[in-house]
């Protein structure tokens, strides 16, 4: 290794990974919560084709994807340096309205800028110029996020309907145990997103990039690289699943969880990745079929159809991993 690192240095980089995973989940859940907020605003807003919720919701999703890309870039660098990237996230802070979203965003981005200045300085001291360049780029983007959130911290939230509306009969099917079941899906998707992202970046580790056969040399590829590309595609699908499921929960006046369950597992090589991911998809399919069954019992057609679509995609992921295990 051309750069001599320490455990303390790798730990510093992993603090950045935990923070990036945190804000990615935070922003995507806030984006999903916009649908709930839109339903609560005053009736006069029905005359508008766009509200502040639409405007903020758009950049929250963009930020969520960008933050996960930051996490991926840092993970990849950690593996290049011979370390092991964490799968743990700091605790997201969601909020209940736009000004709270913005204030939580300002705080998160401010903490990131402080941490990243520290990392840039540390990287410079040991001559780790590549890491320094990565964090200088990330720092610039986080600063843009910081200023964007600042624009909304002083805003007055759109007024909500003052009168309490009695719960309609059909909504009584959405009980706490039902939300708990739906949140198992949220926790499962978060786990998959973290697991697949980490594995995708670990595939860049030198030991997994070695070409051992003439075919691998000729194609400039190997099993780890093929699996890595597969994971990248599946990761984006899981992000969409997380958004849809959490949005449905918020729309039904529930609250989405933000802790992964089961805990993400990475593995040491491509074969381990495949076995772990194959099992993760199996567990997700079993859970989602249970949700479909429960939604059918309750007459929750929208949730049932949503999960039927998601299950079809998860089955496709399952068979993709299964193809490599035969």
State the main characteristics.
single chain, mainly alpha, Ferritin, 10 helices, 72% helix, 0% strand
Concise synopsis of the structure shown:
By secondary structure, the chain is mostly helical. It has helices at 7-40, 52-80, 98-126, 129-150, 176-202, 206-209, 214-219, 223-251, 270-298, 301-325.
Overview of the molecule:
The protein has two domains: 1-162, Ferritin; 170-326, Ferritin, core subunit, four-helix bundle (Ferritin, Up-down Bundle). The protein is built from ten helices and no strands. It has helices at 7-40, 52-80, 98-126, 129-150, 176-202, 206-209, 214-219, 223-251, 270-298, 301-325. The longest helix is centred in the N-terminal third of the chain and has 34 residues, at 7-40. It is flat and about 65 Å long. The relative contact order is 0.12.
How are the secondary structure elements laid out?
Layout: H1 7-40, H2 52-80, H3 98-126, H4 129-150, H5 176-202, H6 206-209, H7 214-219, H8 223-251, H9 270-298, H10 301-325
Helix pairs in contact: 1-2, 1-3, 1-8, 2-4, 2-5, 3-4, 5-8, 5-9, 8-9, 8-10, 9-10
Order of SSEs: HHHHHHHHHH
Give me the CATH architecture of the largest domain, please: Up-down Bundle
Strand content: under 5%
Name the CATH superfamily classification of the largest domain: Ferritin, core subunit, four-helix bundle
- CATH topology value of the largest domain: Ferritin
Please report the total strand number as a whole number.
Answer: 0
Q: Note the overall shape.
A: flat
Measured distance between first and last alpha carbons: 36 Å
Radius of gyration: 21 Å
């Amino acid at each position: 290794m051309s750069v001599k690192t320490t455990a303390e240095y790798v730990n510093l980089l992993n603090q950045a990974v935990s923070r990036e995973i945190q804000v990615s989940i935070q922003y995507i859940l806030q984006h999903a919560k916009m649908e709930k907020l839109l339903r609560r605003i005053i009736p006069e807003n029905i005359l508008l084709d766009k509200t502040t919720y639409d405007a903020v919701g758009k950049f929250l999703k963009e930020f969520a994807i960008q933050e996960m890309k930051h996490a991926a870039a840092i993970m990849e660098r950690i593996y290049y340096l011979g370390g092991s990237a964490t799968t743990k996230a700091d605790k997201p802070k969601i909020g209940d309205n736009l000004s709270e979203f913005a204030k939580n965003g300002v705080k998160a981005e401010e903490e990131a800028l402080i941490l990243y200045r520290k990392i840039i300085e540390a990287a410079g001291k040991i001559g780790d110029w590549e890491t320094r360049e990565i964090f200088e780029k990330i720092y610039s983007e986080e600063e843009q996020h910081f200023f964007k959130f600042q624009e909304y911290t002083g805003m007055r939230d759109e007024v909500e309907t003052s009168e309490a509306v009695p719960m309609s009969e059909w909504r009584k099917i959405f009980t706490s145990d039902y939300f708990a079941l739906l949140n198992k899906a949220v926790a499962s998707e978060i786990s998959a997103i973290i697991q697949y992202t980490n594995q995708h970046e670990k595939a860049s580790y030198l030991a997994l990039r070695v070409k051992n056969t003439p075919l691998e040399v000729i194609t400039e590829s190997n099993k780890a690289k093929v699996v890595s590309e597969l994971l990248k595609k599946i990761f984006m699908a899981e992000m969409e699943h997380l958004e849809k499921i959490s949005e449905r929960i918020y729309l039904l006046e529930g609250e989405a969880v933000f802790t992964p369950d089961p805990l993400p597992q990475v593995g040491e090589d491509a074969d381990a990745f495949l076995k772990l991911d194959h099992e993760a998809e199996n567990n997700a399919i079993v859970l989602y079929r249970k949700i479909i069954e429960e939604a059918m019992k309750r007459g929750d057609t929208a949730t049932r159809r949503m999960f039927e679509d998601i299950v079809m995609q998860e089955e496709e992921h399952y068979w993709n991993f299964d193809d490599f295990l035969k």
